């Protein structure tokens, strides 16, 4: 194997690395941030695409989040790679339980549902086995869809603003740095040129 360790890790080292990575727990987040700001598109396109990914992650339709994000990003003129990154950032196995609980509770409050309306319980495995979405719609999907609107709008506005200004600032600093390098090369080239 090409990148195998010479000395294999012990079990204790593997556990320590899994719980607290050597480079720190925030390194993946910093990499993710750098990946977003380094996309080659306008600040609006990157921010709109990333926001589209965040917005669709609030919906309960797990299998089609990226497709929905691509469609939404295309409609608003967003970057498709940023949309996929937005889906991956917001919708992942660590965040889905919180998203579902929040959207379901908000939807229940908006719809005025109380806890006693469905006191007999729902047999989710049986409903999924029969694919009976009509019985799944009222108690679960409808409150989750309606409850997804307020947090999606709030998080979308915040994420768009942060991403837009962050990308715009990064691109301005990068452009200024490239212009400085070009000026330095021009001055070196004119100084080293033989005079006639």
UniProtKB/TrEMBL annotation:
It comes from the Bacteria. Keywords: Membrane, Transmembrane, Transmembrane helix. Residues 26-175 form the DUF2062 domain. The keyword Phosphoprotein does not apply. Signal peptide: none annotated. The chain crosses the membrane at residues 36-56, 62-82, 94-111, 144-167. InterPro entries: DUF2062. This is DUF2062 domain-containing protein.
């Amino acid at each position: 194997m090409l990148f195998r360790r010479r000395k294999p890790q012990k079990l204790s080292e593997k556990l320590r690395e899994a719980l607290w990575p050597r480079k720190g727990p925030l390194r993946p987040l910093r990499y993710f941030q750098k990946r977003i700001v380094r996309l080659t598109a306008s600040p609006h396109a990157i921010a709109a695409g990333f926001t589209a990914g965040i917005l669709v992650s609030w919906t309960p339709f797990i299998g089609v989040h990226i497709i929905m994000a691509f469609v939404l990003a295309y409609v608003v003129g967003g970057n498709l790679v940023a949309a996929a990154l937005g889906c991956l950032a917001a919708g992942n196995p660590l965040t889905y339980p919180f998203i579902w609980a929040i959207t379901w509770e908000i939807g229940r409050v908006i719809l005025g549902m109380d806890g006693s309306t469905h006191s007999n319980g729902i047999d989710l495995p049986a409903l999924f086995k029969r694919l009976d979405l009509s019985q799944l719609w009222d108690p679960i999907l409808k409150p989750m869809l309606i409850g997804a609107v307020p947090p999606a709008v709030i998080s979308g506005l915040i994420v768009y603003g942060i991403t837009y200004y962050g990308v715009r600032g990064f691109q301005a600093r990068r452009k200024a740095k490239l212009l400085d390098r070009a000026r330095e090369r021009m001055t070196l080239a004119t100084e080293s040129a033989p005079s006639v």
